[in-house]
C-alpha cells in the first residue's frame, strides 16, 4: 500500500512540474487568407494567425500593433523648402530631407557631398590624341 501511495505521489509531482514549465504548444499551420497585420517587430504578416505562429515558434513576444501592412521605414514627408544639396550620386536634391528619403527608398546609400547644387557635368568628349600633360594634382593625363 505504501508503494502505491508513493507511485501516485510521484505521478502527481511530475504532472504538476510539467504544468509549471509554461510550455506552449504552437499551432501547426494557418490559413492562406490574406488579411495583413503589422507586428511589433515591424514585419507585415499575412494574417493574425501567421503572426501568432511566428511569435510562438520564435518565443519573441511579438504582438499585433495594427491591422494592415506595416508602414515602410522610408514613409515620411519632407518639407517643401528649397535648400539644394548635392548627393554622392551627382544629383541635386531640393533639400537634405529629400536626399535622405531618396536614398532610403532606393537603398543606394547616397550621402550629401556638399551644400548647393551639384556641378554641371562636362558634355563634351575629349579627342583621342595622345599629348600627355601633367596636372596640378601630379597625375599625368593623355591630353589637355
Tell me what the structure shows:
The structure is a single chain. The protein is α+β, with helices and mostly antiparallel strands and about 140 residues long. The protein folds into two domains: about 25-70, Wheat Germ Agglutinin (Isolectin 2), domain 1, CATH 3.30.60; about 75-144, 2-Layer Sandwich (Wheat Germ Agglutinin (Isolectin 2), domain 1), CATH 3.30.60.30. The protein contains three helices and eight strands; from the N terminus they run αββαβββαβββ. It has a three-stranded antiparallel sheet. About 5% of the residues are buried.
- How many discrete domains? 2
Number of strands: 8
Roughly what percent helix? 25-40%
Q: Please count the helical segments.
A: 3
Order of helices and strands: HEEHEEEHEEE
Give the strand order of the largest sheet, numbering strands 1, 2, ... along the chain: 2-1-3
Rg measurement, Å: 32 Å
How far apart are the termini?
A: 109 Å
- CATH topology heading of the largest domain: Wheat Germ Agglutinin (Isolectin 2), domain 1
Q: Overall pLDDT, averaged?
A: 80
CATH class categorisation of the largest domain: Alpha Beta
The amount of beta strand, in percent, is: 15-25%
Major beta-sheet overview: 3 strands, antiparallel
The second-level CATH architecture of the largest domain is 2-Layer Sandwich
Amino acid at each position: 500500500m505504501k508503494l502505491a501511495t508513493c507511485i501516485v505521489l510521484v505521478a502527481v509531482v511530475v504532472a504538476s512540474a510539467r504544468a509549471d514549465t509554461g510550455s506552449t504548444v504552437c499551432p501547426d499551420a494557418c490559413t492562406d487568407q490574406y488579411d495583413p497585420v503589422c507586428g511589433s517587430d515591424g514585419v507585415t504578416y499575412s494574417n493574425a494567425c501567421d503572426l501568432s505562429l511566428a511569435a510562438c515558434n520564435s518565443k519573441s513576444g511579438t504582438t499585433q500593433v495594427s491591422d494592415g501592412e506595416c508602414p515602410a521605414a522610408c514613409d515620411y514627408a519632407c518639407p517643401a523648402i528649397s535648400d539644394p544639396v548635392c548627393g554622392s550620386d551627382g544629383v541635386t536634391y531640393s533639400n537634405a530631407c529629400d536626399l535622405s528619403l531618396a536614398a532610403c527608398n532606393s537603398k543606394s546609400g547616397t550621402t550629401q557631398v556638399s551644400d548647393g547644387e551639384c556641378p554641371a557635368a562636362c558634355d563634351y568628349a575629349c579627342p583621342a590624341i595622345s599629348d600627355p600633360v601633367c596636372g596640378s594634382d601630379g597625375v599625368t593625363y593623355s591630353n589637355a
